[in-house]
Amino acid sequence: MNQRPLFALFAGCWLGEAILHIHWMVILTTLFLLCVFLIIKRKHGGKKGVFLFLVGMIIGEMAASFYVGQISNQEKKYKEESLQSLIGKVKWKGTTKSGYYYLMENNYDVNQNRYLNGDILIYMDKEDNVAIGNSILYKGELGCFKEPSNLGEFSLKRYYYAKDIYFQMFPDTLEIIQKKESYMAGMIDKGRNFFYNQNEKNYHGETRQIMEAMILGDKSNLTFETKDLFQACGLLHVLAISGLHVSLIGAGIFRKMRNLGAGFWFSFFLCLGIVTAFCQMTGNSISALRATIMLCIYMFGQCMGKSYDLLTGLAGAGLLLLIQCPERALDSSFIYSAMAVIIIGISQNILKRNPKGIKERIINNFFFCILIQIGMLPITLYFQYEFYLHSFLSNFLLLPLISIGFSMAVITLLVPIPPLIWLCQTIFDIILQIIGWMSRFDGFRIVTGYIPIFYTVLLYLLLVLLWKRKEKKIYAGLFFVFMCIPCFIPRNRLSFLDVGQGDGIVLTQNNQSILIDGGSSTKKNVGRYVLLPYLKYSKVKKIDYAILTHTDSDHDSGMLELLQMGYIRHLILGDVSKDEDYDEIKQMAKEQGTTISYQGKGDVMNANEWKMKCIHPEKGTTLEKNEASLVYQLNIWNTSILLTGDVEKEGEKQVIGQDLEPVDILKVAHHGSKFTTSDELLEKIKPSIGIISAGKDNRYGHPHKELIQRLEEYKLQILDTRTSGMIWITKSKKGVEIHSKKG
Questions:
Q1: 84-102 in b/e burial notation, b at 16+ Cβ within 10 A?
Q2: In terms of DSSP bridges, do strands 595-599 and 568-574 run parallel, antiparallel, or are they unpaired?
Q3: How distant, in Å, are the alpha carbons of 312, 425, 611, 615, 669 from that of 655?
Q4: What is the pLDDT of residue 74?
Q5: What is the 8-class DSSP label of residue 531?
Q6: Measured between alpha carbons, how far is 699 from 89 in angstroms, rounded to an integer?
Q7: Is the peptide bond before 148 cis (omega within 30 degrees of 0)?
Q8: Where are any strands of DSSP class E within 591-644?
Q9: In this predicted model, what pLDDT tens digit does every residue of 107-150 receive, in sequence order?
Q10: Whole-Å CA distances, 57 to 17, 45, 158, 286, 572
């Protein structure tokens, strides 16, 4: 650290910004300071490194405080106002799956006579002949990016804030007021369109989609199946524009120009222009920006006759990115990118610097892949809740092949040489076949569930000790033990997920998991983006039992996604009249090897600490869908809960006619419809808590005012996913505790 003063400053700045975003400030600061003191060698004293680290912390805290204050005040102000008239300049434009988007900069509020901080994303159904550089007047309602409303859910707000984008809008009107175009941005846009056309001519199938992602930064056409294949082999990072791509293009051009006899400065400026344009063309991802700045530092050092240090280069790039936008301190892209470089820098001190012969190089590369995977493991678990044991092997075997294919693809986009195109297509066809085969080994997938930030830091502390101390076997053993501990921690919860307008209930108890419904009519891909992240967060590798109360999209859309991905072991359907929806679900279950059973009144499921009895409908009933919803009485942790699906009308009458026992908690039927949860039912079961799952501003008006008034008359505590987000119940000494994501 003393030998790399800039890195000490960067580490301090990173920590200073991070601690303003989390609640474990004291623990995190203490652990990081311990790491710093352990890294610093005593023979060098270390005073300079520690001083710069503390200075960096102060700089980071000041930058983050100023940033957070400005942005939070701006967000609060525009939350309270509705329609806005704004003038902005088109910074970039692109396509979505359903239309177009414009990224607006220098946004001026006409009514408030003030400029807004950051950029704004606006979405259009069709293109309005708007060019990059045009100034436009657009009117509509500014929307803030929402925080996740479920545990494990990806934070779009943090993602866009790290890109310096703070609002979004679907404009009611849009008018071009100045047609001045940006020449450079226009040229980059034309180049992007040219590469799109070339890619479409050269390649086909999944290879074309992969090229769009790897070279153009556009993953909109990538299928979920392709993404899942790469993720299952630990290769998802190659589908994003990263430092690897920038390094391959930038460093390759710089060295080639030098080999051809070009001067240092000419090569530097040529390479800088190409890489900057590439960054702009592919969306200016954080990892690409980091790699571009590091490449500039490397090339500038070459021009000045100075040696290049990887960690110092990272420190320079990291400081620029963090001070420009402090929100990046806890952004997953920045953390992944920075940690990867740090691990590579450390690996250079462990592995042989100049291996001789093919055998030594292969061994060196093999152990390099292992070191990278071990070093990235704690942060991977923190963000993804899972890892793949064979990822080091797939990276070792396939990354060189992917790099060769990527280089060929870049060449063929510029010069379409048919034999090279055929070879590149063949290489990626082979890669897809290999990862398709490797992804079948589900036993290599380890799901640990959520790991707290302080635990992640503790794992890195052990890695530092393992690297620096002589007692390597002891620290390696401790690292292994601490890595295994999360796998044995029970995650016992009954959760009512915020799926928008729909239902999604998950019970996890003693390594068993039950999903009761999982669908939404307002959130797209709710299975992939809400249910699956929460299951991983809760250490669920596969769902043991998925119960579908009835076949409506707001109850089964996400469940169908999970079925298709192979995440359900056993599917339970109601023993009711079958229709096309039932046949579709049954067929999908059979294709995935999922077993199917049917339940009705009287069927019981139980295990340690819980029992779930089906009390409706009668087996073989001919009631309509909602009326025939499966209804369960769940007894868990000395608490009784009635789960009602969408039961209503005649179905509810049959439920009331049974010998029902009083319950503590009622899952209110049909998202709070006024046609359910009658006085008779409430009088009979006498619940103290009512939980409603409904979407914000849904078109049905759920929950209805009449229903809310009825619940209030019976003095129920009402919990609603619209306002509370995800609601979950855990065991406590007194019985159960109820929590919510939004407090």
A1: bebbbbbbbbeeeeeebeb
A2: parallel
A3: 69, 61, 18, 7, 12
A4: 84
A5: I
A6: 35
A7: no
A8: 595-599, 604-607, 610-616, 631-636, 639-643
A9: 999 888 889 988 999 998 887 788 888 999 999 988 888 889 99
A10: 7, 20, 21, 22, 55
Q: 623 Cβ partners below 8 Å, 6+ apart? A: 576, 617, 650, 651
> Rounded to the nearest 5°, which phi and psi values hold at 2?
-65, -30
Q: Give the Cα separation of 28 and 169 in Å (integer).
A: 37
Q: What is the CA radius of gyration of the chain?
A: 28
How many CA atoms within 13 Å lie on the side-chain side of 421? 15
The structure tokens 């596969």 sit at: 542
Half-sphere exposure of 655 (CA within 13 A, CB side): 36
Q: Rounded CA gap, 3 and 312, in Å?
A: 10
Q: Measured between alpha carbons, how far is 278 from 271 in angstroms, rounded to an integer?
A: 10
Whether the predicted model's global pTM rises above the 0.70 cut: yes
Question: Measured at the alpha carbon of residue 733, what is the angle toward residues 727 and 736, in degrees to the nearest 5?
Answer: 25
- pLDDT tens-place string over residues 295-337: 888 888 888 888 888 888 889 999 999 998 898 988 888 998 8
Quick one: tokens of 566? Answer: 């192979």
The upper half-sphere exposure of residue 296, i.e. CA atoms within 13 Å in the direction of its Cβ, equals: 14
Number of H-type helices and E-type strands within the chain: 25, 25
Q: Which amino acid is at 689?
A: I
Q: Quick one: which of 431, 495, 440, 445 has its CA closest to 667?
A: 495
Which tokens in the block code for residue 198? 């070339």
What would the two tokens of residue 576 be?
Answer: 């009711």
pLDDT per position as a tens digit, 143-190:
888 889 999 999 999 899 999 999 999 998 888 898 877 778 778 888
User: Strand 119-124 to strand 165-169: parallel, antiparallel, or no bridges (unpaired)?
Assistant: parallel
The span from the CA of 425 to the CA of 317, in Å, is: 35
Average pLDDT, the chain: 86
- How far apart CA 678 and CA 460 sit, in angstroms, is 56
CB 203 within 8 Å of CB 211:
yes
Per-residue CA distances from 613 to 218, 492, 599, 681 (Å): 49, 20, 10, 18
The pLDDT assigned to 43 comes to 45
Which residues have C-beta within 8 Å of that of residue 306, sequence separation ≥ 6? none
Alpha-carbon distance of 228 to 206, in angstroms, equals 13
What are the b/e assignments for 362-386, b being 16+ CB within 10 Å? eebbebbbebbbbbbbbbbbbebbb
Structure tokens at 50: 């520690």
Query: Sign of torsion, CA 267 273 274 279?
Result: positive
59 dihedral zone (left: phi>0; alpha: psi -120 to 50; beta): alpha
Sign of CA pseudo-dihedral 123, 127, 128, 133: positive
Burial 415-447 (b: 16+ CB within 10 A, else e): eeeeeebeebbebbeebbebbeebbeeeebbeb
**From CA 108, how far away is CA 137, in angstroms rounded?**
9
Q: Collect all residues with Cβ–Cβ distance below 8 Å to 201 and sequence separation of at least 6.
A: 416
Residues present in the chain in total: 743
Q: Which helix (H) or strand (E) holds 632?
A: strand 631-636
State the DSSP H helix or E strand holding residue 80, giving kind and residue range, or none if neither: none
Work out whether strand 173-178 and strand 135-141 pair parallel, antiparallel, or are unpaired.
antiparallel
Q: In whole angstroms, what is the distance from residue 565 CA to residue 535 CA?
A: 13
How is residue 5 written in tokens?
């003063």
- Determine the distance from the C-alpha atom of residue 217 to the mean position of all C-alpha atoms in its chain, rounded to a whole number: 17
In 3-state terms, what secondary structure has residue 417?
A: coil
Q: Is 516 helix (H, G, I), strand (E, B) or coil?
A: strand
Measuring CA to CA, which residue among 241, 329, 238 is closest to residue 278? 241
